[in-house]
Design brief:
293 residues; N-(1-d-carboxylethyl)-l-norvaline Dehydrogenase, domain 2; Rossmann fold; three-stranded mixed β-sheet; alpha/beta; 9 strands; homotetramer
Amino acid sequence: MARVAFIGLGNMGAPMARNLLKAGHSLKIFDLNPAVVDKLVSAGADSSETALSAAQQADIVITMLPAGKHVESVYLGEEGLLQRLSSRPLLIDSSTIDSETAKKVAAEAERKGFSMLDAPVSGGVAAAAAGTLSFMCGGSDSAFSQGKEVLGAMGKNLFHAGDHGAGQTAKACNNMLLAILMSGTSEALQLGVDNGLDPKVLSEIMLASSGRNWTLEVYNPYPGVMEKAPASNDYQPGFMVDLMAKDLGLAEEMAVKSGSAIPMGSNARNLYVAHQKKGNGSKDFSSIIQELK
Amino acid sequence: MARVAFIGLGNMGAPMARNLLKAGHSLKIFDLNPAVVDKLVSAGADSSETALSAAQQADIVITMLPAGKHVESVYLGEEGLLQRLSSRPLLIDSSTIDSETAKKVAAEAERKGFSMLDAPVSGGVAAAAAGTLSFMCGGSDSAFSQGKEVLGAMGKNLFHAGDHGAGQTAKACNNMLLAILMSGTSEALQLGVDNGLDPKVLSEIMLASSGRNWTLEVYNPYPGVMEKAPASNDYQPGFMVDLMAKDLGLAEEMAVKSGSAIPMGSNARNLYVAHQKKGNGSKDFSSIIQELK
Amino acid sequence: MARVAFIGLGNMGAPMARNLLKAGHSLKIFDLNPAVVDKLVSAGADSSETALSAAQQADIVITMLPAGKHVESVYLGEEGLLQRLSSRPLLIDSSTIDSETAKKVAAEAERKGFSMLDAPVSGGVAAAAAGTLSFMCGGSDSAFSQGKEVLGAMGKNLFHAGDHGAGQTAKACNNMLLAILMSGTSEALQLGVDNGLDPKVLSEIMLASSGRNWTLEVYNPYPGVMEKAPASNDYQPGFMVDLMAKDLGLAEEMAVKSGSAIPMGSNARNLYVAHQKKGNGSKDFSSIIQELK
Amino acid sequence: MARVAFIGLGNMGAPMARNLLKAGHSLKIFDLNPAVVDKLVSAGADSSETALSAAQQADIVITMLPAGKHVESVYLGEEGLLQRLSSRPLLIDSSTIDSETAKKVAAEAERKGFSMLDAPVSGGVAAAAAGTLSFMCGGSDSAFSQGKEVLGAMGKNLFHAGDHGAGQTAKACNNMLLAILMSGTSEALQLGVDNGLDPKVLSEIMLASSGRNWTLEVYNPYPGVMEKAPASNDYQPGFMVDLMAKDLGLAEEMAVKSGSAIPMGSNARNLYVAHQKKGNGSKDFSSIIQELK
């Protein structure tokens, strides 16, 4: 069992940390929100005053933060881990950020003698609670091997996407594709309904045909087709429009930098941003179908 | 066993007819191309001089024609089946055409006392040969029941999409979604590759994540990822760009008529038409990724 | 001076007819709405019971109707002009319809010995009232020459676009481009405002630079920039979203038939249709900027 | 007359510097390329060994550099102007870069006691030579007033877009709109031609109608319509596809940061990037019409 420091206990981080406790790892935690800290302390974690003190005697440090600037601050800041840690734990950043920042932090970590993985997740809050997340990892083979046991306590699919930043790149590609699947499935269903088809029947047909995709399998955007999907529960998330808009922004910036054409992905970003601006940011991302009604 | 008339023995029609023979049905055939007729006669079919004579004593008539105008001609022409047939076989049109023409022909058929199904297929030449097509049927419950045995000899998934035209509508929706999946998957893979990922690794990751879709499962557009996919065989079809462009045109016209917004589908149509115009019409439709390289 | 029959006295037709009276032409009119007929009778027109009787002794017949089906009915119907007229006046259809229908009607007219022009207009209600419309005409040189005097009483720009249908084709191209200009200008202005620019200043800069276009010149979509523009008057039309959506549908159908790629035009159609579906159909078309806020 | 330092003498910088000499200003220049330096020395400029020495005794420093990283290096580097200059000339950066970098450099300049303008240009090489550029300036009123005389020697339209970065923002908005105009005009012309219209006639019609825009006025993309346009000269630039793709990337990154929806602009970026990737980067940007043929 490992000594793990967990920094950032939001909607995703808290259930991930809880699964580490369940697996028998010892856990030191840090978050600015005392409420989430208290709950995890009740479950067996030790709380720390700072990210640094949480990390000080850990074998593995895991960070789960909202955006690149927070990651930069925790690792590269004047009081940051790379500057101040005397030990050399494995560093795993599971935040979803741009791959450039991921590469920059990892390069500085290596310069200071740390091993580091970028390891963003896929699967959402439900998978975080169930311990069935997918981890898309970027870093060396040895760092990936070293991280496997702990990551395996939080997820069931562990992918080694490539070198530093590759985890973030893979996640951006996947989530861009997800937005395309969701938008495309939404408009195919709506086009059918506008022309007299029953959305359940059309969903079944496409699920058994070449239109099959993840959203038709488990996340149908048409209300009433799938009882447990957000679409049948007023589009309560699930995975929020705000988060999808952020991820599509990361993919778009990546495409601009690499000079890649992403016609469908850009289209999806513009649909999601327009949807978000009309006050739908905290709805589930399958609510994009409402833009077509 | 039924007496079946089969009219239109192209790349799809010929193997479909062959499966009817295998299943023990008696078959009268008509096509303007003597070569394809001869082959089926060797396999046990009877050839006829005209569509009308092929249909005259059939229990079921199946048509498999290139476009709406051919369907109109065979059924509605002055020498057409509706005008001239003295018997009242079940009429099944498996051509992929616009749902308006399908409705118009079916309405006229009903007026003359025929039962009719529009029953376009999904699955391509390979599925036609293997007898594993999907049929998307529009028409009455009783017509659908009546057609099942014969359709089941040619396909494994028989869907009753709704009333007349609903089969065509469902197919247009599905194929539009397929074009979106293929374009989106292509650009997600290319974006990853442009940013240093291995297309095989990224394909695996997305296949196990929320980007999962039919193209990643069986039809990966990146050369070398899937040995048997057209992408690994110089984009030999498979399903041609010309046909996908046609199907996207049908979906687009349907959307204009119903006043539906199909932002991703329109985008896909424009990508495919531009690709087609550069001389790629007879390549497999997964070659759309070449527009992004 | 000519004897003119004018059929269809809606928002556009009525002021056009009024300008014919002002120019000294004698005018017989027909419309199903007695209110608009009465007003024109007060202004000096003669009313007729039917389209046919209005046209019977005319030198020139002008039709201004909502859609292709009305044009077909007036000209091709059993009681239609081509069937029943004993004289052979010049026929001018100023409705905005698809070029296929325009060609079909004109071909039938020629077969019956009529000269015909398709002559859709550009400029909207204000230009109709001011007599400053543009006419885009399709037909023979001689028909165009013959129509010039009467068209010149209603408009200031008379274009001979080509043979039958060419007027409709030119209008569809122009209005598709207009929708692109309006959408593009809207998003450029909103992008500037979102990044701290004053919309007036940015409008001035782009008007003097390579972004210059008709919408910046006379129809700025940002509220407050141009006092008399619909944008500064709650988006009261002007040119309605419903009409722009219709015109974009005509362009899209034309593109599908000719196998043309229109990526920007399709994008504009989908924006306008989505905008329309949210209840904005009777707003001015510059309200598309509201989709971006 | 002012003492001006000019740093960066590429295709745009060299003719701009030449116009300063013509207007009677004294000029110190710096560029890494000795050929362009020599030509300007022949015309009356003084050459310097470094950017710093060129700027040392100037009243006004003008920089015209390829990208944000060069601007950062010249101003913020360890040997950069802000660090090393003992005098406090007005700083004018006419490079086209992202507004964030422009703001960052200007903020540091102000902290060190400099006045600074970001002043990107519009108009291309021809306007640079003719002294008819447009300058879009960001900075204080007083800096704008102070720069006017010198800018007026190089351009005829001087705009004060707002505070620091506003010049770059305005240029990004304008050039995004330009790309939309060019793409949209291209597809409207091609759609007309595909449906039988003469591109000259259609150009005239749209120029006199609501489709009017800068590209139809002076830069028609259809070969043969406008004798002096790049389209009639094998798409020799003019303004290169590479540069338009760069500018669209700047607009896109700006939109991602401000959370703005730019559906038409993103579409244009993807068209230009795909066009560029096929080896058309050094063609004129009006060659985008070739993607539609």
